[in-house]
């Protein structure tokens, strides 16, 4: 160090000078930069060593790599893999849908998932801290992520509450949704009309579970059963996340693995059922012409986007608890493919069971229509000559009915419609698209009533849904708590409990009798467009503002190897372009699709599309605006210096790295830093390494602000 440097002068004068950045950093232990990959000016040709995480970082860490992988898998694999992916696969060309899905998974899914893992692991902060550091002007990205997590968590836990209710209802035989209830009027017993017009499972869902109103405007008051189920759901979530990853990591061992046990059990049992092969064959029969439709690619991109949990902040939060030299590229590829294979497994299970259900419903259709034909034969409406001689009504097969139906339709061409006969085609039953709550709480529950030992399978199925939802909720809550705990010194347990209590009371909106309509509203508007905007801004801030070359160098310093060059082009050009197209398609769809919901009409015992009233429409747009509002607010506030850039809230590893920058810059321009400390204390000496102008890194890219104080 030069004799006239400020540090040397300070040691000689022993004068008290106000503590500044350099002094606070100087108190930290010495870091050997020669043996660290933070040394960006190392000798060419040598293998980049692993980055050593400072022992006094103070940040919690995963107990093992397995625990971390299970946490990421538990967060990304959720209810959508079970009830959304199979529906999209059926709707968009069966096996052909897997082609656009796989392509988009490689083009935008894995690269963006890798990006989030990398920035979280490198900066070791939650979503707010990460984006404050990468680009302070776009620091609102983290706040928007937190807002979306809050909105999604509110209604997502309601679904867990529904699953808890069905779970406890499954401990009885026969299952309570297996038969329609009987209404007694004196000595007369009749089937409940609403159930008779629909089905036992549909009636149990809409009337006995939700007790739903006919419109969103009719509140109907709180549903006590659903309120208690929601309370239980929030207690479970609170206990799982109350100690951060110390508690949630242990929960993940069970909640992430148990659904796979259930799915494999259901697959084996489903393949033993009559008609399961029909369902699977129908599922994966490719309709190649569908691949040419833009809508198929848009829905595939949306599913890839949400399946991996991009933009929620949970991915970044989980990754921030990793060791800084963890191979996050391997993690990104592994978790993405586990997610994809889980979706395929869930699709096999769903359509094996729905194929069984379709066969039962088809046989029921044949029996009902055969009775109609017998009635027409007995009343001489139809001639016995129309019935093929080999047909036996006591053992009527679907092929015999199809032959008989064809003959009657040909002969009675003019008056056939008046007979009211149905074709009873298995294909028609298999083509009935069911998704979301309709799949889990109606179609699947109806199929399970025909299983031997149906209560056992019902308990297993809904316990699986609870665990799938719990894994996603843990990630969502971590996306909320981690950024706040990073920024403010609050007690973790107290803050977590307060969040859960507030969320429970806000969630009472969804357990009114009209609550299901609000779940649909939040699902449609609170996450879709805001999250897409958040992720494209994440992509742009790293690839275009921070710089893709610089980011690639950071990854090499952190991982010990340089990622494939294809990521450079994916992050810089392909992913932003795909996301812009996705945002445009989403906005166009929102503009041309009338905003509304499917209301359950009790008198008709069926759903009917209803438009949102003005106040509900305003609520829909408010959800979108509130979720995205932090983006322009933070940008304007920092542009006019109305708020700090938040860059002072860095981890210990970054403080030590910035000490290296100070040492380098001190040789060039000593006047850039105000140096001072307590009398008699001297800063640690760091070896000065020459830096290549072509090897900029995340550590040296950010300016060091004068008199900035870092929290200890």
Automatic annotation (TrEMBL):
Subcellular location: Membrane
Residues covered by region (Disordered): 678-712
First-listed, main subcellular location of the protein, grouped into a coarse class: membrane
InterPro entries registered for this protein in UniProt: Na/ntran_symport, Neutral_aa_SLC6, SNS_sf
GO CC annotations on file: plasma membrane; synaptic vesicle
Membrane topology type: Multi-pass membrane protein
GO molecular function, one term: symporter activity
Pfam families: SNF
PROSITE patterns according to UniProt: NA_NEUROTRAN_SYMP_1, NA_NEUROTRAN_SYMP_2, NA_NEUROTRAN_SYMP_3
One example of a Gene Ontology biological process annotation: L-leucine transport
Binding site for Na(+): 74, 77, 81, 339, 468, 472
Alphabetically ordered keywords of this record: Glycoprotein, Membrane, Metal-binding, Sodium, Symport, Transmembrane, Transmembrane helix, Transport
Sequence intervals crossing the membrane: 68-86, 98-119, 140-168, 228-246, 253-272, 300-321, 333-354, 456-482, 494-513, 525-546, 567-592, 612-637
Residue stretches of biased makeup (Polar residues): 686-702
Similarity remark: Belongs to the sodium:neurotransmitter symporter (SNF) (TC 2.A.22) family.
Protein name: Transporter
Organism lineage string: Eukaryota, Metazoa, Chordata, Craniata, Vertebrata
């Amino acid at each position: 160090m030069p004799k006239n440097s400020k540090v040397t002068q300070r040691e000689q004068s022993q004068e008290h000078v106000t503590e500044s950045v350099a002094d606070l950093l100087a108190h930290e232990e010495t870091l050997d930069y020669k043996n660290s990959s933070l040394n960006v000016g190392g000798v060419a040709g040598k293998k980049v060593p692993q980055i050593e995480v400072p022992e006094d970082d103070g940040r919690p860490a995963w107990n093992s790599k397995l625990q971390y992988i299970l946490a990421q898998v538990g967060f990304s694999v959720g209810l959508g893999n079970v009830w959304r992916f199979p529906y999209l696969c059926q709707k968009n060309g069966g096996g052909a849908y897997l082609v656009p899905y796989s392509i988009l998974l490689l083009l935008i899914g894995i690269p963006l998932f890798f990006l989030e893992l990398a920035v979280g692991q490198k900066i070791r902060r939650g979503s707010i801290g990460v984006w404050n550091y990468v680009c302070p002007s776009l620091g609102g990205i983290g706040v928007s992520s937190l807002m979306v997590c809050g909105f999604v968590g509110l209604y997502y836990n309601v679904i867990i509450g529904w699953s808890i209710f069905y779970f406890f209802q499954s401990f009885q035989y026969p299952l309570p949704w297996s038969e329609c209830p009987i209404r007694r009027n004196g000595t007369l017993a009749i089937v409940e009309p609403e159930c008779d017009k629909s089905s036992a499972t549909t009636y149990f869902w809409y009337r006995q579970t939700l007790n739903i109103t006919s419109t969103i405007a009719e509140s109907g008051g709180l549903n006590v059963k659903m309120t208690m189920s929601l309370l239980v759901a929030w207690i479970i979530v609170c206990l799982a996340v109350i100690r951060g990853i110390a508690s949630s990591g242990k929960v993940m061992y069970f909640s992430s693995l148990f659904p796979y046990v259930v799915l494999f059990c259901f697959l084996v049992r489903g393949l033993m059922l009559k008609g399961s092969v029909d369902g699977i064959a129908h599922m994966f029969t490719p309709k190649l012409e569908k691949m040419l439709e833009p809508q198929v690619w848009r829905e595939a991109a949306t599913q890839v986007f949400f399946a991996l949990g991009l933009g929620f902040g949970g991915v970044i939060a989980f990754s921030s608890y990793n060791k800084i030299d963890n191979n996050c590229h391997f993690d990104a590829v592994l978790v993405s493919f586990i997610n994809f294979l889980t979706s395929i497994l869930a699709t096999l299970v769903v359509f094996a069971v729905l194929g069984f259900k379709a066969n039962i419903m088809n046989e029921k259709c044949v029996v009902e229509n055969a009775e109609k034909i017998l009635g027409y034969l007995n009343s001489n409406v139809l001639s016995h000559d129309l019935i093929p001689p080999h047909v036996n009504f006591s053992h009527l097969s679907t092929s015999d009915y199809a032959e008989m139906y064809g003959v009657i339709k040909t002969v009675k061409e003019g008056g056939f419609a008046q007979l009211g006969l149905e074709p009873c085609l298995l294909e028609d039953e298999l083509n009935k698209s069911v998704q979301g709550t309709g799949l889990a709480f109606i179609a699947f529950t109806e199929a399970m009533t025909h299983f031997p030992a149906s209560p056992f399978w019902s308990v297993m199925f809904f316990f699986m849904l609870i665990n799938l939802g719990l894994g996603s909720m843990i990630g969502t809550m971590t996306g909320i708590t981690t950024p706040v705990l990073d920024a403010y010194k609050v007690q973790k347990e107290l803050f977590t409990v307060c969040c859960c209590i507030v969320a429970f009371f806000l969630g009472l909106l969804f357990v009114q009798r009209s609550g299901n309509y609000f779940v649909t509203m939040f699902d449609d508007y609170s996450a879709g467009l805001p999250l897409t905007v958040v992720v494209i801004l994440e992509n742009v801030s790293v690839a275009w503002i921070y710089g893709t070359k610089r980011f690639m160098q950071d990854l090499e310093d952190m991982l010990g190897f340089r990622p494939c060059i294809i990521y450079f082009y994916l992050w810089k050009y392909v992913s932003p372009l795909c996301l812009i197209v996705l945002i445009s398609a989403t906005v166009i769809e929102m503009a041309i699709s009338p905003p509304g919901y499917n209301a359950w009409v009790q008198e008709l015992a069926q759903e009917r599309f209803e438009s949102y009233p003005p106040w509900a429409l305003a609520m829909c747009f408010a959800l979108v605006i509130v979720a995205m509002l932090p983006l322009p607010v933070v940008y304007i506030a920092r542009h006019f210096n109305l708020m700090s850039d938040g860059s002072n809230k860095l981890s210990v590893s970054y403080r030590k790295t910035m000490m290296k920058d100070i040492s380098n810059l001190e040789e060039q321009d000593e006047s850039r830093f105000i140096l001072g400390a307590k009398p008699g204390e001297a800063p640690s000496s760091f070896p000065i390494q020459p830096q290549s102008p072509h090897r900029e890194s995340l550590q040296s890219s950010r300016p060091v602000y004068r008199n900035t104080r870092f929290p200890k």
